[in-house]
Each structure stands twice: as C-alpha cells, then as structure tokens.
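WARN  no MSA supplied for this record, continuing single-sequence
INFO  ligand: zinc ion
INFO  echoing inputs
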Amino acid sequence: MGLADRIAESAAKRTKPDTYCAYQIMYNSLTAENKKALDDAWVKGYSANIVIMALRAEGIKSSNESIRAHRKGLCRCPKK
Ligand SMILES: [Zn+2]
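INFO  complex generated
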C-alpha cells in the first residue's frame, strides 16, 4: 500500500467517529435493549453517576463529561 492510500485510509477512519461525541458513539454501540434502558434512566431522572456506575458494571466505558456535554447539547453531535 502506498503512502497516499495509507493517509486516505487513516483520514477515513478518523473522520467517521468524530462525527459524534464519545457518548453517542458509546450509545450507538449498545444493543437495542440497553439503549432503551439508558433512555429510560434519563426519563426517570437518574443522575449521570448512577448511570455511569451501571454502565461500568456492564463493562461499558463512559464519562461524566461526555454525558453532561451530550445531554446539554454542548457536544459535537450534528443534530441538536
Ligand atoms: Zn453528543
């Protein structure tokens, strides 16, 4: 593979996940069941700390910052 191809390939890999913030990428990777559980948690008014602890227990990484930014619409997700 030539250098130009390598650069094009890594650029393609980089730009895709950057479209969404860390929270949305994590959310997109969840099963339909877990997405619903997460949506329900916010509807019920659970705090980010409670949700993060549950996510971690399930082996899913997330952070307070990414959750807060996403929920306040301060993240880089395209649709607000
Ligand atoms: Zn976001």
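Residues 19-80 form one domain.
INFO  checksum written, moving to next record
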